[in-house]
Amino acid sequence: MVTAPPVPAKRRKSASWTQDPEGVRRDILAVARAEFVENGLSGARVDEIAAKTSNSKRMIYYYFGDKEGLYRAVLEEAYARIRTFERSLDLAALPPREAIATLTGFTFDYHADNPDFVRLVMIENIHHARHLATSTKISVLNLSAIDMIREVYERGLAEGVFREGLDPIDIHLTISALSFYNVSNQASIRQVFGHDMAAPAARERRRRSAIETVLRMVCR
Amino acid sequence: MVTAPPVPAKRRKSASWTQDPEGVRRDILAVARAEFVENGLSGARVDEIAAKTSNSKRMIYYYFGDKEGLYRAVLEEAYARIRTFERSLDLAALPPREAIATLTGFTFDYHADNPDFVRLVMIENIHHARHLATSTKISVLNLSAIDMIREVYERGLAEGVFREGLDPIDIHLTISALSFYNVSNQASIRQVFGHDMAAPAARERRRRSAIETVLRMVCR
DNA sequence: GACCAATTGAACTATCCCGTACAATTGGAA
DNA sequence: TTCCAATTGTACGGGATAGTTCAATTGGTC
């Protein structure tokens, strides 16, 4: 008669296995982001995220505390990315008109290319931006984008190509609205009007329209 | 000795109480709408809706089948309302420029005055407009708004006040984007830029900007 | 008044789902 | 090697949650 071995040869992942906390974090974050983007904060399931990770649910709680902590981390990463994008623009090198056109085009493209970001912002707004408010990593007041626009706008005023009386915030809101809406409301636009804004032709057409609209708004 | 009354005086709601299915439906719908708008589809709780109703949870399932059926009913009502609003506009009576300005102003106001509608549309888009797609009561193709714009646009072309080459869809998308974004993203705008778009002064300023922007877009 | 279909109430269930207890393993410091 | 703190796996608990069961009540019709 053979007794079962006392330790039933519990398999290690590989012969000699190294810990990789950063890798684990990144893996979890990527999966979590996809789940939150797809299902929202309430709709996402921690068990589902864990299952799609190469790690166990225990890790999520170890690294992120709870579901909201995980969501906050996803949100922080998304905002960090767009801040990086914004900083990468060098509008000061361009004449005012071209600067505004370039900014609008890039903003439009960033939104169209990153629907995940757009959906996260939608989800966060459904929650009244409660997590943006409590996050310590997301600097609450981000005025660099506005400052960039102000610099260009004043240059355009000085050169006499822009009309007076505009608020940089207003310019920013217009650019954002024209970039955000097509992506955020893509599904309902398709249902109600039968137009697929994600199709290359429609997207390109809309992009040109956005740039033209913003230029007509600011130019004399 | 007095025996307890055979039926222990189970209290009727009032002396003589009448059934009112339509009232029950309306009551449930109003409460459900508030809950869905506040918490989203996944976040809303049927028990919570039932508790805030003057009826029991049983009624919700009796009249609406399940949670999604209730949500669909809320959505259908919201879309029915904005269709009514759209039909109430009589742009044909106005000269083209004024017609576009009026349409933009009214659309802006409708969104600002009905954040519930805006949030429902956001929520529906998070769910990829799946319920808009399956609803039988919401006519999937709603082209009346587009047709209205096309009529005005062609009138403006004929009179030589509008520039050529625009797509009515594009005009509609621009008006919608400029009306929707301030409301849908109100919370994140406040967090990130410290601006409260719901404040009367900011709202009025933005309204004027939207009208001006659309006019500059379409006019020669 | 009797009967039936529409409506309603109260308690219940099965499942889902977030989070935790506890033990085990690992890497590195001494 | 030894020991400790940082990680990680397994199994489970407790409460929330959508939806149901079953019977009772109601209003209208004959």
UniProtKB/TrEMBL annotation, chains A, B:
Cited Gene3D superfamilies: Tetracycline Repressor, domain 2
Domain of life: Bacteria
Known DNA-binding region: 45-64
Keywords (A to Z) from UniProt: DNA-binding
The HTH tetR-type domain, residue ranges: 22-82
Pfam families for the chain: TetR_C_29 (PF17938), TetR_N (PF00440)
The UniProt record lists the keyword DNA-binding: yes
Xref: InterPro entries: Homeodomain-like_sf, HTH-type_TetR-like_transc_reg, HTH_TetR, NicS_C, Tet_transcr_reg_TetR-rel_C_sf
Keyword Protease: no
An MF annotation (GO) of this entry: DNA binding
UniProt xrefs under SUPFAM superfamilies: Homeodomain-like, Tetracyclin repressor-like, C-terminal domain
UniProt name for this protein: TetR family transcriptional regulator
